[in-house]
Structures are given as C-alpha cells and as structure tokens.
Design goal:
This protein is α+β, with helices and mostly antiparallel strands. The chain has one domain: START domain (Alpha-D-Glucose-1,6-Bisphosphate, Chain A, domain 4). Helix content is about 25%, strand content about 45%. The protein has a 7-stranded antiparallel β-sheet with strand order 1-7-6-5-4-3-2. β6 and β7 form a beta hairpin. The chain is globular, with a radius of gyration of 15 Å.
Length: about 150
C-alpha cells in the first residue's frame, strides 16, 4: 500500500484545527478541483457518517466517503471510494509551540486499474496536492477574517 503525507504548523489550537478539518462540508474551501461535498444524512458527524463528493479533474469525479476515525482535537479520518479505488485520508493534530502541527495523509488501500496504470502520475500529484491542502488550511485558519 502506497502512502503519502504532508504537514504544516498552524498558529491555532488543535481543537480549532480539528473543528475545521472535521467539517467535511468545508473541504471545498481548501481542496483543489472545485470539490463539492454533500452530507448523505442528518445529524452530527460520527464514525460511519457518509458524504458524496464531486470534483473536476480529468472530467467529473464522483466519490463516496465514510468517516472512519474521529478523535476530537486529534484525529479525523475517512475512506473515499471512487475511480482510483479506495483511499484512506487522515488528519492528525498535535500541540506544538503554542500552535498545532497538522499532518494530512493519503494511503491507497485498494487501487483500481486506472490507479495502477497512472501510478507514475499519482506518485507525483498526490504529494503536491497534500502540500497545497495543508498550506491552504493554514492560511485559512491564520487569516484575521477567518470565521472557522
């Protein structure tokens, strides 16, 4: 299984960072490719909650995501199933020097045929995408106008 990760330090408490990244409906604020997220059911987010996503990358990409890890202030993870197969995504937060170290990772659990034949591209694009994501999250949370 191939895994990738990126990290950044954010000048905000771990719980603030967790509250932002665990709000799946806000992922479109920092994720690339025009991501749109819809929660599939009512109620608070919990392990087992599901979301449907649509993004524009090489055409329209639809995925179905299920929350698999939820530790307030520390971990938020989900499995996403789509054209590339099943990918486990995870945020971890840890207090660090008056702020928070945020780590975002992606691990391919089950690669589709498409993911196998484009592995060279995935190996290049996923790390860059993770870096961009954590930096956008940092900028968003450190912005004076942030309402998150």
């Amino acid at each position: 299984m191939e895994a990738f990760e990126a990290r950044t330090k954010i000048s905000a408490p771990a719980q603030t960072v967790f509250d932002y990244v665990s709000d799946f409906t806000k992922h479109g604020e920092w994720a690339g490719h025009g991501l749109q997220v819809t929660k599939d059911s009512d109620g608070p987010v919990a392990i087992g909650s599901t979301f449907s996503t649509v993004a524009k990358q090489f055409g329209t990409q639809r995925e179905h995501s299920t929350v698999t890890e939820l530790e307030p202030g520390g971990v938020f993870g989900w499995d996403s199933k789509g054209a590339l197969g099943t990918v486990h995504h995870r945020f971890t937060m840890a207090a660090a020097d008056g702020g928070t170290t945020l780590t975002k990772s992606a691990e391919f659990l089950d690669r589709s045929f498409l993911a196998k034949v484009t592995s060279w591209k995935i190996s290049r694009d996923v790390p860059a995408g993770l870096e961009a994501d954590v930096e956008k999250i940092r900028a968003r949370l450190e912005s004076p106008s942030s309402s998150s």
